[in-house]
Amino acid sequence: MGRAACIMVQGTMSGVGKSLLCAGLCRIFRQEGYRTAPYKSQNMALNSYITRQGLEMGRAQVVQAAAAGIEPDVRMNPILLKPSSDTGSQVIVNGEVRGQMAAAEYFRHKRELIPEVLAAYESLAAEYDVIVIEGAGSPAEINLRTDDIVNMGLAELVDAPVLLAGDIDRGGVFAQLYGTAALLAPQERSRIKGLIINKFRGDLEILRPGLDQLEERTGLPVLGVVPWLHVDVDDEDSLAPRLSRAGEKKPIDIAVIRLPRISNFTDFSPLERHKILGVRYVERPAALGRPDLVILPGTKSTMADLLWMRETGMEAAVGKLASAGTPVLGVCGGYQMLGESLEDPEGIEGGPAVLRGMGLLPGRTVFLPRKTRTRVTALCEAGPLAGAHLEGYEIHMGETRNNARHFCRLAEGREDGCWQGEVFGTYLHGLFDSGELTERLIRWLCQRKGLDVETVQPESCRQYQERQYDLLADGVRRALDMDAVYRILEETR
Question: Which residues contact 255 (CB under 8 A, 6 or more apart)?
């Protein structure tokens, strides 16, 4: 078997849509019959995923793997940085925690990771026909050029041609693309084979004179103008699409507390997609209102975010709603907050040794150095939600002990979470993905409001996602010069 062809998408900045463009290319190549795998050497995100082997990776490559029709593999994202503060991150290499590092320490250390980055890539390249590589941030961060392992440095290591994407929705796209190219060294600039303008809304004919001038000034072809695509594909790095839905009025109102260090908010994507659920992300007590359900999501720093809840008045507001009978659900870190106490004897979270919990569930959480990472199937046994089959994963640093009724029973026999009255807590991420818990939750919330539950139609999350990937591929295919993309690919074989 020969080595895979490859193509790399870099961006003029973070948030230009690299992840979605890569997912679209993965889907297109899959539709054309190529065995395709995504790859990103280094990801920085709080939204992560646990593979079937119990290893941790970034969700962007999970989405891209799904678009390519393959199982997520930690080789697709060998380095994951999970920010724990403004200047430090938990460093995860090949799915395993290597420890906490300050930014300066990691910058000095990352060159040592090159062999592992290359081993992961070469292993994938030996098994697939095409590798779609995603860069990170911008290649023009000239202060980070030394020992770069994620943008042009990686492109040189694996000999990848580059497509450079800019975001026209933010404005200044011509300056973005021209400036990025101008700041690159000549050998780096020679790797760029084409430019892409992303997130375009408007009349293409008005834009066209600018495209001609951009090509003339950079000496690089514009391979396409990708319109703003109305597709619903999980974004691991941003809550912006979800926050934009806050104005939608739907029969059932769900408020998710937008914690400062919120993680794995994609847990709630199946709820957001349902036609009768209005899911909004709330960061001020005044905006909480009287929802039908409050959700406390996962967080990278449970104790710090609980203190934020306390200091802002959000804890008191949620407690008041719970006392009045509003259902509350805590997931992972949110579940830990709902208990009676949180203890950190070894300083795992870097905060106080002991912190009072919200007291809405009976439970005591102790943070331990060992990180729980496992995929699970379970049966929910919590009151009105009982009977739902769940598929998800655990990823947390603490253990919670309680004598209350458990939320669900795992296939292996172990119990997870607890519930008391109308307050529920669980460690399971992805708990709504199977659709069964969503259906039971909706029926219960509708009954509480006296709504006609017969109008509720459960939706297959998997079928929905597959349709979105096809829509994404259609939009990218129409916008890009795919003949040119295939020529660029062939040059790498």
Answer: 280, 281, 282, 288, 289, 291, 293, 294, 295
